[in-house]
Amino acid sequence: MAIGGLSSTLPVTSLATAAAVAVCFSPEEDCTAFAVDAIDRAETQILINAYGLATTSKTVEALIQARRRGVDVRVIADRTTPCERKSGLGPLAEAGVPIWIDDSVRIAHSKSMVIDNQVTLTGSMNWSGGAAHNSENLNLVASKIISAAYVGHWHQRLALSSPYTQRADWCRNADVADFKSESWPRGKIVSQGVV
């Protein structure tokens, strides 16, 4: 069956639902402010998948503030995230945010937040300051059905992830060092990123 004129070969997790969607495109728009506004409205829980999560973004501070006001904030990050310059995982861990590292895949490239099981932020944009200068997209989808799908995926990744303790322990891991040197073959490495 085709959904909305799309191919009938959609994945099993494809959902047909009415949803309110707001979109943001950087650098033309302030997508960080868009994300921070959604975080500031959280009342009970924020589940995060992060490839890039840096202190250079106001997102990290907004998540810490959410944690301080009693929101259950939880993060699953890519294995390279703790080792990047200005990683936001340290400050989040210090604020009491539980963090896991998705080290069972080559890259945990998912970038999403599910807020209060009702709103999902997702798109190409990393949770970093540099992303604001790139051509990126960030979509806010207000749908309990879509949020439930993302929550289900978050828990699937959690089951395959390792608890994060501290940066020094994680970044000494030979697998992470080897991965960093092998995973960026198409560009030159600058400050642990690709150009």
Word description of this protein:
By secondary structure, this protein is an alpha+beta fold. It contains 6 helices and 10 strands; from the N terminus they run βαβαβαββββαβααββ. An 8-stranded mixed sheet has the order 1-7-6-5-2-3-4-8, sandwiched between helices. It has a two-stranded antiparallel ribbon with strand order 9-10. The radius of gyration is 17 Å and the shape is globular. It starts with 19 loop residues before the first strand and ends with a strand. The model is unreliable at 1-7 and 177-195 (pLDDT under 50).
Output the helix-strand order. Answer: EHEHEHEEEEHEHHEE
Uncertain regions spanning at least 5 consecutive residues: 1-7, 177-195
Envelope shape: globular
Distance between the termini: 42 Å
Largest sheet: 8 strands, mixed
Q: Which percent bin holds the helix content?
A: 25-40%
* Structural class assignment: alpha+beta
Number of helices: 6
**What is the radius of gyration computed over CA atoms, rounded to a whole number of angstroms?**
17 Å
Strand content: 15-25%
Strand order of the largest sheet: 1-7-6-5-2-3-4-8
Mean pLDDT: 82
Number of beta strands: 10
